[in-house]
Structure formats: structure tokens, C-alpha cells
Design brief:
alpha/beta; Rossmann fold; GMP Synthetase, Chain A, domain 3; nine-stranded mixed beta sheet; four-stranded parallel beta sheet
Length: 511
């Protein structure tokens, strides 16, 4: 039975809160929910005038702006499929995304227009091209200004595609995760309720919007509940600290919290109006969790999700938030830890994390083989993450299955070694990978970032420290000191890149 999908639910929320402010930018300019709904109608009208039909893809590689949010909402309203792309992607990367998604409309910055037009010619793509800049200008904005304010929300089936999110591509070629209206609406509604969102909330939005965290988790929680978005183009620690005085909720990645901790002004009084800090997109170090709690009195709520599923688990709003864990499964979502034969394991045993629920994506775009590989025979999605439940049902992520190190026939989970390294005074952070080894198959190898001015010791000293705490087969054979760890746009360590760099360094040093 057709309904109006995710936008129908948003539209209902907009109508209930029509006079309330929906969004405010750095300059102080704001828009009410009524005004936001009108802008979405105009943008949907403009998109239709480009000749788009229901179900066609709109690829957007644009800077974060209120108009970019309106574009996403307009695609939902008109029944188009929104495909956001990281603004850092270069032409060689864009070639894959555009040829794979086959959009009918591609929207980019005016500065990139010439390059993108050449790419479309090379790919022999028939996609129309429009522009949108960080200030909300461009050919799309001009089309929106001239379009109708009237637009009837298109009826869609719950399982109609709403968006395609390309995986971060830290290893291998990025795949397009197909997310339906059911996926997005079910997850957004559960999160808004679980985290206690209401119309009096003010969400400080400092995340990019080409990713699940910023585009779906943050905006859906706010818009479905009539909360206001403090819409910030980028994260800046000092500006964010000042903004906390007006916010009730902040969502960030671990790097945001470590940078806030570097600000002397981060005090309990600076956070007096905040009811919730949420962290995700990359693991939050236990030291960061504890340091933030000491400085502010707030326990950061860490949750767990991915492009293919939205959010899966969460530490509780009310109750103990355990540092180093990602909490319990969200309502309506089933999570299990399994062995290599997809058999459920008891609490305390480490294995592959699998999930099932309305939040789980419809499959990979135009890749039925990969889709079949990632689902079990009884319908569970294999996340590729490795984890363990404790006796109270809290899940801890040990690492990625592909990052598992097998050395001398023994399994080593990098996160266990990283936890020991990170606890060494003077160590800012670490990452552990496996490098080829003639005797062991793989050698446990660590990259360590030291705090500025730290005298954390030598490679031999660090290895000796780890040896006192872990079995010998888990101890790094080599430790390399690096200035920083390679990360993707959302702060996740790119272990494939790190592995290659350390292998090159090992080859140059002869060991």
C-alpha cells in the first residue's frame, strides 16, 4: 500500500511545528518549519522541471548549506533517489560513482562545473548538470527561485529507494547501499524516541551531510520531533564551544570531542544547557570518554551503526553509559554475535556481528552477488564487524573481520592491542595492523602517535610494556612512530592505507 514515505512523516511534523524555527545558520538567519516546507516544495518543483521522473537518481557533490539540506528533502518529497558524495572526491573517484549510479541529474559546485561536464562527456552520460555553492547560489538555486511554491508530495511505497550511500571505500571499491523510505523512517523514529528528542531541543549540527551520521541520524532526529538545528558549515572547536550555550544536544565524531578537550573553556558551566552528547562514526577511546566526563560531568553516549543499516545499538539515555561499548540493540533491531558458520555465540564470546530489522538496507546497488554474500540464509546482514556482548547485553566492537591478524596460527584482534598501547602515558593514539612475515604469516605491527613533547620511550620500551600485559603472540613485532594516522572524512582510521605505508617503511628499513 502506497503512502508518502519518509517525507510524509516529516511533513506531518512540519505542520505541527510550523511556526517554530527549524534551522539557524552562523549569521543568525533562520527559517521556520513552514518556510522550510515551502522551500522544499519549490526545490521539488525545480527538480521536476529538469525532467526527472520518480525513482531516478540525483547525485550531489556539494558543500554543506541550508540549500543542500533542502535538496535532500526535495528528493524525498518528489520520489527521487538522493546520492550524496563526499566533497573531497576527485575526478578519478567520481568516475566510478557517476558511471555506477547513472544519475539523471548531477549537482556540483560552480567551480567544479567544467571538470564535471568533461567527466560526463567521457562517460557518455546523459545526466543534466546543475550547480550549488556553499552560499546557496548557483543554477539550481536560480531554478528554485523561479519555481512553484505548490508541490503535492509524491506517494511512495515503503520499500521504494530513498537514497544510495556509497560506502567509505577504505578497502576496495565503494559499493552503493540502497536505503528505502522504510529503512530511514523506522531508524529515525526509533532514535528520536530513544534519545528523548522533543520540540524544545536545539541540536548543534557540525557534521558533514554526505554521510549517514549528519544527513540521516542528526537531521531526522531533529526534523521528526520539531527541534531546531543550529546549522554549522564545519566544525571549529572554539565556535562549537560558544554554540554549546544555546544547544541541548550535540552529535559529533571522536575527533570533535578530543579537540573540545583541548579548549580551556570546556567546563561544566559551558555545558550547563546540554542534556546529551552523542558520538559515532569511529570508535571513541575510553580515555576520551573518561576525560570528557571529568571535565564536563557528561558521559558521552556512544552508539554503533553503518551505511547499510543506520544505527544498530546505543548506550542508554537513562542508565549507565559504558565507555568502550556501543550499548544495547535499539528497539525493533535484532543483533547477534556468531561464529564462522553463522551460529549464535553466548555472551563473552567474540565473533561476527549480524543484524536484522527494518533498518537494514535493501542491498547493494546493481550488485546482487555481493548482496547475497553479505546476507545469511535466514536473512541476517553480516556487518563485517567483530564484537562481543557482555553479561548485561552491552556490545563492544573488537574490530573489522578483515582487520583480523592471524599470526603463527593465532587470531589477534587489533583493538585489544591498541587499548594497551593507548593506555601508555604519552601515547595519543595507535593503530595495529598485520604485515606479511616469512615465519608467522603476519606480524603484529603498531603505528603510534605521541602527544606533543612526549617522552613515551623507545620502540623496545613500548614492546616490553605490551609484553607485560598480553600474550607474546599479540605483542607487536615492530612499532613505528608516526605524526598522524590516515583517516577518511568521518575520522575512521584507514587501515588499508596505513598497512601499505608501514609495509613501505619496513621495506626501506629492512625489517
Amino acid at each position: 500500500m502506497a503512502d508518502s514515505g519518509l517525507y510524509g512523516a516529516l511533513e506531518h511534523s512540519f505542520a505541527r511545528h510550523d511556526a517554530r524555527r527549524a534551522l539557524e545558520v552562523e549569521s543568525g538567519q533562520s527559517a521556520t518549519y513552514r518556510e522550510l516546507d515551502t522551500e522544499v516544495a519549490r526545490c521539488a518543483s525545480a527538480l521536476r522541471e529538469f525532467g526527472l521522473r520518480r525513482g531516478e537518481r540525483v547525485v550531489a557533490q556539494v558543500a554543506k548549506s541550508p540549500q543542500a539540506l533542502v535538496l535532500y528533502l526535495a528528493c524525498l518529497r518528489a520520489g527521487f533517489v538522493y546520492v550524496p558524495l563526499n566533497t573531497a572526491y576527485r575526478q578519478s573517484e567520481l568516475s566510478h560513482f557517476v558511471s555506477d549510479a547513472e544519475p539523471s541529474l548531477l549537482i556540483c559546485s560552480p567551480a567544479a562545473q567544467g571538470e564535471i561536464r568533461a567527466l560526463l562527456r567521457t562517460l557518455r552520460s546523459s545526466a543534466r548538470l546543475a550547480t550549488l555553492d556553499a552560499a546557496g547560489g548557483g543554477s539550481l538555486a536560480e531554478a528554485v527561485r523561479q519555481s512553484s511554491r505548490q508541490f503535492a508530495t509524491v506517494a511512495v511505497e515503503p520499500d521504494q529507494l530513498a537514497a544510495i550511500i556509497y560506502t567509505s571505500g577504505t578497502t576496495g571499491r565503494s559499493k552503493g547501499a540502497m536505503l528505502t523510505h522504510r529503512n530511514l523512517l523506522s531508524n529515525g523514529a526509533v532514535l528520536a524516541k530513544t534519545w528523548g528528542f522533543g520540540s524544545r531541543d536545539v541540536l548543534l549540527h557540525v557534521l558533514p551531510i554526505f554521510h549517514v551520521h549528519g544527513l540521516f541520524v542528526a537531521t531526522h532526529c531533529a526534523l521528526l520531533s520539531g527541534a531546531m538545528l543550529l546549522w554549522r558549515a564545519t566544525f571549529d572547536a572554539k565556535a562549537t564551544l560558544a554554540d554549546l550555550a544555546r544547544a541541548t544536544v550535540m552529535m559529533g565524531v571522536p575527533t570533535h570531542y578530543t579537540r573540545l578537550l583541548a579548549e580551556a573553556g570546556l567546563t561544566p558551566s559551558a555545558c550547563a544547557g546540554l542534556r546529551l552528547f552523542v558520538s559515532g562514526s569511529a570508535p571513541l577511546l575510553a580515555d576520551t570518554f573518561r576525560a570528557f566526563q571529568r571535565r564536563t560531568g557528561h558521559a558521552i553516549l556512544e552508539r554503533y551503526g553503518m551505511s547499510e543499516t543506520g544505527m544498530i545499538t546505543s548506550n542508554p539515555l537513562d542508565g549507565e553509559r559504558r565507555g568502550g561499548t556501543v550499548g544495547r540493540p535499539l528497539p525493533g533491531i535484532s543483533v547477534r554475535v556468531t561464529d564462522a558458520q553463522d551460529r549464535s555465540l553466548p555472551s563473552g564470546d567474540t565473533g561476527g556481528i549480524q543484524v536484522r530489522g527494518d533498518n537494514v538496507f535493501a542491498g547493494y546497488w546493481r550488485d546482487p552477488v555481493k548482496t547475497r554474500e553479505e546476507f545469511t540464509g535466514d536473512g541476517w546482514f553480516r556487518t563485517g564487524d567483530v564484537g562481543v556482548f557482555d553479561g548485561d547485553g552491552y556490545l563492544s566492537i573488537v574490530g573489522r573481520a578483515k582487520d583480523l591478524i592471524i599470526t603463527g596460527g593465532y587470531n589477534v584482534y587489533p583493538k585489544e592491542v591498541e587499548a594497551v598501547l593507548d593506555a601508555i602515558p604519552g601515547v595519543a593514539e595507535s593503530a595495529v595492523v598485520g604485515l606479511p612475515h616469512s615465519d608467522f604469516g603476519e606480524a603484529v605491527t603498531a603505528a603510534v602517535v605521541l602527544n606533543p613533547g612526549s617522552q613515551a620511550g623507545t620502540e623496545a620500551g613500548i614492546i616490553a610494556h605490551v609484553k607485560r600485559q598480553l600474550a607474546n603472540y599479540k605483542v607487536p613485532k615492530r612499532v613505528y612512530f608516526v605524526a598522524e594516522l590516515p583517516r577518511n572524512a568521518m575520522g575512521k582510521v584507514q587501515k588499508s592505507v596505513l598497512r601499505q605505508k608501514l609495509a613501505e617503511q619496513a621495506a626501506q628499513s629492512g625489517g
